[in-house]
Amino acid sequence: MAAFAVGLSAAGVVAQEFTLKVASPTNNDVILKWMETFKASAEEGSKGSVEVQLYPANQLGQAASPKG
How far apart are CA 34 and CA 29, in angstroms? Predict the structure, then answer.
């Protein structure tokens, strides 16, 4: 009976697909290499349910300056 209950709960789980945007202020450096490695690992590990988009060199805009 317990195996049947586990089977039902597992059947109801649906993987949600989503996009993860990863940004950095620099380009062509060790941070970008890490981002590329992370992207490959995350997409492979999620079996396609996670898409990672890379945005080096402030492509998504400048970070807000701290207010002092």
Answer: 9
Q: How many residues does the chain have?
A: 68
CA distance 16 to 34: 25
Please give the model's pTM, rounded to 2 decimal places: 0.69
Summarised one tens digit per residue, pLDDT across range 19-43 is 999 999 999 999 999 999 999 999 9
Cα separation, 16 vs 3, in Å, equals 25
Q: What is the three-class DSSP state of 46?
A: coil
What is d(CA 65, CA 68) in angstroms, rounded to the nearest whole number?
9
